[in-house]
Amino acid sequence: MKTKPDLSFWKLWNISFGFFGVQIAYALQSANISRIFATLGADPHDLSYFWVLPPLMGIIVQPIIGTLSDRTWTRFGRRIPYLFVGSLISVLVMCLLPNAGSFGMTVGAAMIFGLVSLMFLDTSINMAMQPFKMMVGDMVNEKQKGLAYSIQSFLCNAGSLVGYLFPYFFTAIGISSIAPEGVIPDSVIYSFYIGAIILILCVIYTSVTVKEMPPKEYAEFHGIKESEKEERPNMIKLLVHAPKTFWTVGLVQLFCWAAFMYMWTYTNGAIAETVFDAPFKSVGDTLVLDTASRQYQAAGDWVGVLFAVQAIGSVLWAVVLPLFRNRKFAYSLSLVLGGIGFVSTLYMTTPYELFISYFLIGFAWAAMLAMPFTILTNSLSGKNMGAYLGLFNGTICIPQIIAALMGGLLVKWLTPADGIAPQDYMLVLSGVLLFAGALSVWIVKETHGEEQTA
User: Fold this and answer.
1) Hey, which end of the chain has fewer CB within 10 Å, N or C?
2) Cβ-contact 265, 407 below 8 angstroms
3) Is 342 inside any structural domain?
4) pLDDT value of position 169
5) What is the spatial distance between Cα 150 and Cα 378, in angstroms, rounded to a whole number?
């Protein structure tokens, strides 16, 4: 089997540059979905259920894209056609989703419109996102994979930073951050529009500058025999023959992604109540935050700022991570520091104090973006790389689905009689989950190319 050559820094950069635009779209979704549905009228006790759809679509779409792209060869490349089509769909849906409350529909109809738009947005983002990870596995040798995924992590966090700050920026320049009840503010709508433009431009750049390996060259570099080229992978067999690394890293992912699901779901409500003093109102027998209030929408803008601080912490920590000689120690330490960040939110009383919490949370995010894929792709041969990475996405999606389904029940259990939902406690739970993830890192055993024939 031939060894893949070293690539220049800029070739590694170009492979992942489109990820910058995709991550802007993902950041806008993750920072604003709870705000959008709460503004449309969702009960905070049911808020987590709206988050089931994104990971559910991911777990369906990712393995399909991985498997199909393993068998796709066109003059445009192997993975690039999928990321390009996914990006085009994302652009269209990003222009529709934030307008869910602006078409004169009833609350119920607006919710359904928002859910359908969210389903298509997350499907298309997943379709566009996964090929970037696959191209690193396809084109980069083991020596450079750590650097390649660090570049991807940097671009991911830079895109997140931009996407998170858009609503705050538009509010700062005078675009309204409040709107009539049930209508999404203009600052959020314009954020999605500009994010869509940047997304498609970045994906075009990667599509033009990256040349994927032709089939014969790919087979030589990945040790694929002529007789194996036409084999159709069976998902069950692939899972049965998956290297142990697949499952042990997957356990770490279980705790980590559940933790971040609760952050995305409950940060807005938590800080609106504890830091921004948003007023309450009664809806039937339930006491909820007034989502049309200036304080609640100000908290929504501040969520983007906090997530941006998290992204800055992640970018800086991504530079530090390669300096650790023991990868598992670096991975575990990152999750512990992120867990401390989550728990500390319970004790912060001003918006700026929360910078400390979310900066630490960024350390965990940096490790989650780089470490699992470096460890996993080193343990795989190239034969079913896309299929395995698609299946591995289940370790991202399944924890989020479980967390979303359990979140509403946990909030109802924690809510005192005649009291408001304690969304801040869900952030503390996120910290506990990251501590559990840090412990589980130590059962991971790193291997190299031990994928067995399925």
Assistant:
1) N
2) yes
3) yes
4) 92
5) 15
Q: How far is 191 from 24, CA to CA, in rounded Å?
A: 10
- Average pLDDT of every residue of the chain: 85
CB 90 within 8 A of CB 129: no
pLDDT number for residue 224: 63
- Structure confidence by residue, pLDDT tens digits, 417-434: 777 888 899 999 999 999
Over residues 13-20, the mean pLDDT reads 91
Distances (CA, A) of 187 to 176, 192, 194, 265, 278: 6, 9, 11, 20, 19
For residue 299, the domain's CATH number is 1.20.1250.20
Alpha-carbon distances of 445 from 62, 96, 146, 245, 249, rounded to whole Å: 25, 45, 17, 6, 9
CB 3 within 8 A of CB 141: yes
What percentage of the chain has pLDDT greater than the value 90?
A: 35
Find the mean pLDDT for residues 74-95. Answer: 88
Residue 25 forms part of a structural domain: yes
Q: How far is CA 138 from CA 374, 377, 385, 387, in A?
A: 13, 10, 8, 12
* Containing structural domain, residue 129: 9-209+233-443
Using CA atoms, how far residue 327 sits from 311, 323, 334, 424, 430, in Å, is 21, 9, 11, 32, 23
**Is residue 72 scored above 80 in pLDDT?**
no
Is 382 within a domain?
yes
- Report the SS3 class of residue 226: helix
Q: Is residue 454 part of a domain?
A: no
| Phi–psi pair at 185, nearest 5 degrees | -60, 155
Report how many domains make up the chain: 1
